[in-house]
Amino acid sequence: MNARSHAVFPRVNRAGWTDTLRVIMTIVAPTVAKGIIIRRPTIEHLAERQDWNAKAVKQMQRLKKKYGPAPLLLPIPFRPQLLLLDPADVSTVLQSSPEPFAAATPEKHAALAHFEPKNVLVSSAPRRAELRPAHEQALATADRLHPYSAHFKGVIDAEFLQLLGDIRSNRSGELDWPAFSQAWFRVVRRLVLGERARNDIKLTETLNDLRGRANWASAAPVDRRELALFHQQVGRYLSEPDKHSLVSRFPKGGEFAPESQVAQWLFAFDAAGITVIRTLAMLACHVSYWGKAVEEAMSGDLDRPFTRSCLLEVLRLWPTTPVILRQLTEDIKCGGRIIPRGTGVIIFAPFFHRDPEFLYANRMDPSIWGPNDALPAAGLVPFSAGPVICPAHNLVPTVASLAVGAFLSAADVVLLQPSLAVDNLPGTLDHFAIRLRLAARRREK
Prior knowledge:
The chain has helices at residues 17-34, 41-50, 52-67, 87-95, 106-112, 125-139, 149-169, 177-193, 201-214, 224-239, 258-284, 287-299, 305-317, 349-353, 395-408, and strands at residues 13-14, 72-74, 81-83, 101-102, 174-176, 323-328, 332-334, 337-339, 344-348, 411-417, 435-440.
């Protein structure tokens, strides 16, 4: 074997077969069952009722106590995995991506082949070097505020004010996931593809069908006909992009497979919507945080640092990407052990995000974030970290904070369901079951 001359990890421990099976049953299987690409409502409900994430975190804590903090080698036949147990190793892996820790794993290939087979996430290192700058240009990765943020705010305010009007006209005064998600995806289509896409529900339905198949990864064949239909639907907006749409900032010319790149943006904004409704639920039951977020919303500023921190806290408490995967591109030497090329790496985010050594482990504390979107040294990586950090790590919090603000500036919000103990928040929160009551904001005379 041709191992690296230095150790990436000082030591690696090997799990027994019983513990490997426990990891598969309590961490891997539940994550897959909930839906790795699109959430399954029935399983999400079951996961919340049985608090699967909390059980998974306890299992990880047990493994760390038994084996120590070094990465734990799971001897899974044909697909060994390194399970990280120390936040320092999380930082090492993410800072050393994509070499020697590649983001393009076989698991991602199998899932994303269903709807974005040529996406940057599953590209080789040379191809990634070509595609990544195109994403960074369109999404303004380096900018805290996207150049189109003012336009985005106008779109978001218009859609959610209309939603609020519809809720009030029905006299229910209640907001649930079905009503929120319809308005949210109108926003997403307008931001990504432009005004012409506002009512293109068929495009979203096609993508969701493909994502449903992607949940099965290689266990389901790729529906080539529906994939071609989706690319055709997206292509209509790429040929003559609307002004102020994200696709209008995509580089012209070149072999970028734009349909596959744009599919990821549409897909990722689903997770952002989940985070928005969870953040509204959390603010509704945290009076002191609520007041600060309302003050920001009423100010009209595009940058909402406190609301942004609240969103990051919700992502810490309930990460929408609970598992970050990497794969070794070469053999590495760890102590007296050689870890072969092709070994997978698993970062189970809830374990680090809910570390019991944190005083805030199971409660909301926006102050921990400050100006940061990631704290890799502590294992807090809601948008990943390092060279392969999500290129929308600035855009998504901006859009999401503007969406939260659209509600806070127009309505008082009460959490109807579920009932939450704010000092001991559950490990799993089913966004499908969240119900909020919206009432017209009382104005001082």
